[in-house]
TrEMBL record:
<protein>
    <submittedName>
        <fullName>Uncharacterized protein</fullName>
    </submittedName>
</protein>
<dbReference type="InterPro" id="IPR006439">
    <property type="entry name" value="HAD-SF_hydro_IA"/>
</dbReference>
<dbReference type="Pfam" id="PF13242">
    <property type="entry name" value="Hydrolase_like"/>
</dbReference>
<dbReference type="InterPro" id="IPR023214">
    <property type="entry name" value="HAD_sf"/>
</dbReference>
<dbReference type="InterPro" id="IPR036412">
    <property type="entry name" value="HAD-like_sf"/>
</dbReference>
<dbReference type="InterPro" id="IPR010237">
    <property type="entry name" value="Pyr-5-nucltdase"/>
</dbReference>
Amino acid sequence: MEFDDLYLQVQRPKYDCLLFDLDDTLYPLSSGLATSCRINIEDYMIEELGIEKSKIAELGNLLYKNYGTTMAGLRAIGYDFDYDEYHSFVHGRLPYENLKPDPVLRHLLLSLPYHKIIFTNADKVHAAKALSSLGLKDCFEGIICFETLNPTHKSTASDDEDDIEFVRLDHNSTTTPTSTTSPIFDIIGHFAKQNPDSVLPKTPIVCKPSTSAIERALKIANLNPQRTLFFDDSVRNIQAGKLVGLHTVLVGTSQRVKGADYALESIHNIREALPELWNVEKKSKVGYSAGNVAVETSVTA
């Protein structure tokens, strides 16, 4: 019996779950979706929010740099808008036809004997379209997306964990926009003046690379960060993941940076870079069970 217990302990895989970012991680930057997304965001800022075109480049850069996403930054500085309409405008015109089925990646993912979950800042419609275009939708047990971490339209920043809930495929999320009653915070002027007494406003949107967003995602999926391997193309997201205890893989470059345990030029290099992921016995053969990792149905969006 003692020998059997030792055998099970030795054979237990290092990870319970592989957590994957979606955009520019499961498909290359060269697809053009990122460029189209940026253009659509800029058009939204001009056409829907009435921001001067001359300010778009600098404003967009500051919002992305300080809030993780332009959307989160826009909400922080005082712009209010319908989340679904924003996502429809930004993602609805993306060239999904540029994403082709990827049978090589599909085979790699299906051969990995772990739970696999998508963790993206994008909305559920975009995630579903992208995964379907790549032929990878059934390779993952669930999706943690924008609606998962932002189930309701909030006007103010909140750390209330009771706001968190799962978003399911059959859940028709609705948002109730409120009018903008406060003045827009001049973030360009804030950095131009470099006033040490001026504080950036918080955003009500929860998203990567916020460590709180990653911690909430792990809580939702009931994942132990020390037994989770996180793949993302963003250095900031990888470094935030490392701060909360995740094992990390930077995708899109072979140059490993601080915070990244591994670096892959392409997601297709996963077997060459991490052969140990396949060097485990089937869980049923070593008597290992994932236990209470509730990802089979709970986190699908």
